[in-house]
Structure formats: structure tokens, C-alpha cells
Amino acid sequence: MANLDWDDLSFKYRQTNVMIVSRYKDGEWSAPVATSDFDFHLSAYAGTFHYANSAFEGLKAFRGVDNKVRLFRPDENAKRLQRSGHRLGMAAPSEELFTQMCCMCVKENIEYLPPYGHNASMYLRPLLIGTNPQLGIASSNEVLFCVMCSPVGTYSGAKSLSPGTAVIARDYDRAAPHGTGAYKLSANYATSLYPYNLAHGQGYRELLFLDPATHTKVDEFGSSNFLAIKGNSYVTPLSDSVLPSITNKSLQTVAEDFGMKVEKRAVPVEEIAEFDEINACGTAVVITPICSVDDKAALESNVVTKTYKIPSGDECGVVSRKLYNRIRGIQDGLEEDIHNWCLVL
Ligand SMILES: *Cc1c(COP(=O)(O)O)cnc(C)c1O
Questions:
Q1: Atom of ligand 1 lying closest to residue 246 CA
Q2: Residues of the chain with pLDDT > 70: what percent?
Q3: Alpha helix ranges (H) inside 40-120
Q4: What is the CA(242)–ligand 1 centre distance, in A?
Q5: Whole-angstrom Cα distance, residue 173 to residue 171?
Q6: Cβ atoms of residues 217 and 266 within 8 Å
Q7: Cβ(302)–Cβ(294) below 8 Å
Q8: What pLDDT score was predicted for residue 170?
Q9: Which pLDDT value is given to residue 158?
């Protein structure tokens, strides 16, 4: 066992034993290898450095109540990375290679997999970068794919399901209309760092982006999707600039299992006033309940034009908690995996 306090992991980089690497060249992926050297030796001319020829993924492995190790929906991450690679004009690993390398990564670092009962897990970070030297703008024809991991607790170190505040970004977008918002590209994050820092500096937990074409509809939070509960409905924005979250997709299925109606549609900003519960959702924490949303004309200004108080307030909403518990239960082997989401190692 690694010498770690499983109850105090938060979400940060920790070196483990190895990462798993495969390289693509001349139409073929090399056999994946485990390496304890976490430093790349790459040309300074590699496309990833200059033009962000780079995409990534995030998924988790869990130690269950039955002591089994479960990977949550790796096939979905593999498919999403293929879509990202395609958008970059770059090769991406097959579903088989992707899953094989994720499994290798968990096994080779197994002492860093948190035991059951600490609400902690092993976060896997698959990374796809273009490596051939280039000067002109072009897609990369040599690619490095690696999977690294780190034991993690809750994202901010805060208690899980503790509600946070959000602010609307009206004068910053994370994605362009018809841009790359729906692909998990590294470049998307570069554009959101500055507004994210502003929001954090003002004490907000989350930054809510609007649709970049009209700024009248809700898109998503900086690194997580937007989901709301309204009566018996699960409401989430339908927009081509939103990243298709696997957590959101899973929560929608769970909501349907509970007999709720799932509404994937445009969400006007003003509708926030009508929601019973709002959450940010993503792999890192499943859901973060939102207790209030501030609207500002300019993120840099101190003037708040409107504050939406969410009725669930300082507690996680009842429906959201039920959805969360079902997902976590499946990941932990406490509930039957009726949709066959988990890959048991
Ligand atoms: C990764 C990501 C999410 C969450 O996706 P999950 O598959 O649920 O982890 C949401 N929004 C953005 C912008 C992301 O990059």
C-alpha cells in the first residue's frame, strides 16, 4: 500500500509507479510499454507545443465493496478520444488499445488505488499528442498516446456534494460557434483559464458559459456539464458547443430508470429561476450542487445584475442526491450494474 491518507487526497498530481505509452508512426501503434520515466523526450518542434495538436480524456477506477476493481465506461472515453483525434486530423488508439492501456495503468499502479470506503478513486488521464517536428501548421502524423493516473478524492478537497456558487461568463466564451467545444481538446482549456482565474479570485466555485453565438442560452460550466431538475424532469442543454459528458449521459439513463423525463433542449438563461436543483456534472465528482448563480455584464466588474438563488440552497437537492447515489453505487459495486457500464479488471 502506498503511504497516503485516503481521506485527504483532493484532486492533484501525485507521481505513481509508471505510465503506459504507445507511439503511432507509419500507420501503426507500437506495443504499449510501462515506464517509470514521466519526462518526455520530444522535439521542440512537435505540433502539440505550438498548435495544441492535443486531446485528453478522464475516467476513473474504483475499488468496490466486493474488493473488485471497476473501470467506469472506458469504451465511451475511447470513442470520445477517437472523435477528438479525428477533429485534429490525428490518429487515435482503437477502443481495444485504449482499454488495454487503461487496465495496464491500473494494474501497474494498483497500490495507489484507494481502498473502498473513503469516497476516493484512481483518476486515469489518457493523453494524445502530436510529436513529429513541424514548422508549418499541419495535423501531426506521429502521435504519442499515454495513460497516467493519480489517486484522487473530491475535486476541491471540499466535502462531496457540498454546494458551490457559480457566476455566468457573459464576456468570455470557452468555445466558438462551430468550433471545438464538443471535443475534448487541450486547446479548449487554454481559452478558459483567464476567465476561470477571475471567477475563482472572486470566490466562485464554478464558471457558467453561455452559447457563444447568442449568449442567451446556457451551455456548460468550465469543465463540467449543466444539469437541472424541474419537477419530474431532468433538463440539460442541447448545444453543439457543449462537451458530451459521459457522467451526464449516465445520469440521464439513471433519471429515466427512476421514471423521470429527460429534456435535452435549449435552456434560456432566465429559466434558471424556474429550476428546483442545479448541478455541474463530470467524472471528477459526479455532481457539484449549485446553490446560487450570479449574472454579471462583465466578469471583471463587481456589479452583479441578478442573483438566482436555487431552492435546494445549502443542501444537495433530493433528486440530485438520489441520482448521485445510484451512479456511485454502481461504481462501488453496491448496486447492480444493469446497463453493463463497469469493466471489472
Ligand atoms: C471532460 C469535460 C466534461 C465532463 O465530461 P465527463 O465525461 O463527464 O467527465 C464536461 N465539460 C468539459 C468542457 C469537459 O472537458
A1: 7
A2: 99
A3: 47-51, 74-88, 95-108
A4: 9
A5: 7
A6: yes
A7: no
A8: 95
A9: 63
